[in-house]
Amino acid sequence: MTTDPAKTRNSELKGLASLFRARRGNVAIIVSLVIAVLVFLAGMGVDYTLATRRQDQINGFADAAALAAVTPNMMSQTSTQAQSAAQAMFLSQLATVPSVNYSAGNVTITATDTGNGTTVNRVITVSYTASSVNAFAAVLGMPSIPIAGSASAKSSLAPRIDFYMLLDTSPSMAIAATQADINTMVANTPSQGGCAFACHEYNPANDGLGNPGGEDNYTLARNLGVKLRIDNVNIATAALMNTAPTTAAENFTTYRAAIYTMDYSTSLLQGAGLTSNFSALATAAGTIQALEVYNQSCVTQTNCNNDQDSYLDQGLSYLYDLMPIPGTGGSSPDTPEEVLFIVTDGVNDEQFSGNRDMKPINTILTNPDMCTQIKAEGIRIAFLYLTYYPLPTNGFYNSNIAPFQPQIATEAQNCASTGLFFEVSTGGDITAAMQALFQKAVSTAHLTH
Fold first, then answer.
1. For residue 378, what is the domain's CATH number?
2. Which structural domain, as residue segments, surrounds residue 259?
3. What is the mean pLDDT of the chain?
4. Which whole-number Å values give the CA distances from 411 to 210, 313, 359, 385, 388, in the listed order?
5. Which residues pair with 341 in a beta bridge?
6. What confidence tens digit (pLDDT) does each residue in 279-302 have?
């Protein structure tokens, strides 16, 4: 039997067409499935992200509610009152979070007081469960995503604290305090190439400053009405000494302070030994000024050190040897807690191992560094860093400070205890910054989760 070639070819073509249509249909099915999966994943990603953000926000409210129950004022009330206050605060804030379902029964708050001699210790716990409403509920096949969290805080009656103030009075602290003052100093010191520092010298004759009447830059600044950074430190320290007793009274405790200055040496400011007489400390703080030297090269006529007058690491070592091992600040005979409160622009200029060494604070005396040793003793370090102002028009700065300028703030923050670092830029409010850092240091409440 013979086969018609034309019929055979038609049959083959029909078969191929049928196969192509089948494959095209399969591709369409696969694409549809892929699109469905992508839509599901996109929806899940969006809703999961929204749920996470809402949970983070609510966790922040839980933190705030827990801390509110252990403020000094709340510590004078009963644990039941503290619990009620925390619950009211948390529920009112929770109500502001959109697209979250919850009920008061899903919120659990407990406050427990225990006695320790004359001290009351309180632990507060806030926990919740809720659900975040999904934007792609139809796609995901679920109306919401469960969320939950908790926060705990503990506190006791505020401890007694001794503050050891370590204030940088080296010549670099005599820089003009604001950008406008810096511009004024630079404009009035052309023979020096424009100098923003009001160096305090009592025999500047050999320095060739070119100022009117042979005056030093400190006198020039005063005559020009320029305020210096050290002036602001003086004002801020005196203000803090005046407000510290009020804070102590509000916290039902006692604070003491001592004020030390550091430049080419570290010394107790006259009339500022460790005391709770803050009026006397405020008076002493009013005398703080930048180091006065013989001239640029000599501290005195017979003590010439090539202007190496910023022994900051030596200052850390001095206070480390001087400060006793702290206690917990509880009732007598327990010894007070201790805080080393440092105010500086953060740059060393020391004689070390026979060489002039200019580096960020806490990097010359190492292995281990002084800040680590101090904190290991249980002493907290509060660090107010006054930004070392870059002076690109100054040759000394470009050669000696600029290479490590980015490290200065980092090393200062590494020195500080957690949460006790504050930076103030040129022209910033040093008084407000010092007050804020002090308030952080005396805070006894802390989150424990």
1. 3.40.50.410
2. 161-447
3. 87
4. 37, 12, 10, 10, 13
5. 165, 382
6. 999 999 999 999 999 998 899 999
